[in-house]
Each structure stands twice: as structure tokens, then as C-alpha cells.
Design goal:
The protein is globular and about 40 Å long. β1, α1 (11-23) and β2 form a beta-alpha-beta unit. It has helices at 11-23, 38-43, 46-57, 75-85, 92-100, and strands at residues 2-6, 27-30, 62-65, 88-91. Strands 2-1-3-4 form a 4-stranded parallel sheet, with helices on both faces. It has one domain (15-100). The two termini are 15 Å apart. By secondary structure, the chain is of the alpha/beta class.
Length: 101
């Protein structure tokens, strides 16, 4: 299963979540890999950032979130896209628990 990893810009949290989910067998597509977030948006055109991230999201089966994701500029759009595309949104901890089940 391909998971789009999204959350607040805390690189250590992204890297830890990506490592843990990959270890469990998930293929992780991380928003942090391209530096997506407020800093990234300031250095690139916001529509270009969205196009890039939406393109990555469309290759995924579901979304894994890390704390703080709801405060991101992209959060509302991400939630809407997930609902329309019928993509499940769970926290990283919920994906870990699901794997253990």
C-alpha cells in the first residue's frame, strides 16, 4: 500500500514516520521529500507546489498524517481531495496499529 505522508514541518518526525512505516511494508511518499510546507511555498510558486503534491497524492492509496497536519495551508484541500478520491486518512500511529492487527 502506498501512503502519502503529510504533517507539520518537523523533519525528524517525518523521517521517523517514514522509516517506521517503510519497515512495516508500506511504500511511503513523503511531502517532506520535496520540502513541501510553508518554507517550500515561500520559495516556489504556491500553485506549482500544489500541482507537485497533488500529483504525488494521486499515486497513493491512503494518507498517513503526523501531528500538526491540520494547521498546514494544504490541510483543507488535502482533506477535500481525500474525501472525493475516497482515500483513507489515518495518523501514523493508526497505520502502525492497523499493520499489527
Amino acid at each position: 500500500m502506498r501512503l502519502y505522508l503529510f504533517g507539520a514541518r518537523h523533519h525528524s518526525a517525518f523521517h521517523r514516520a517514514e522509516r517506521d512505516l517503510s519497515f512495516l511494508g508500506y511504500t511511503v511518499i513523503s511531502a517532506a521529500a520535496t520540502g513541501f510546507g510553508e518554507t517550500h511555498a515561500e520559495t516556489k510558486n504556491w500553485p506549482d507546489c500544489l500541482k507537485q503534491e497533488i500529483g504525488k497524492l494521486l499515486t497513493c492509496d491512503a494518507i498517513a498524517t503526523i501531528p500538526g497536519w491540520k494547521w498546514s495551508r494544504f490541510a483543507d484541500l488535502l482533506r477535500t481531495l481525500a474525501n472525493e478520491l475516497e482515500l483513507e486518512i489515518r495518523t501514523v500511529d493508526e497505520w502502525r496499529t492497523r499493520y499489527d492487527s
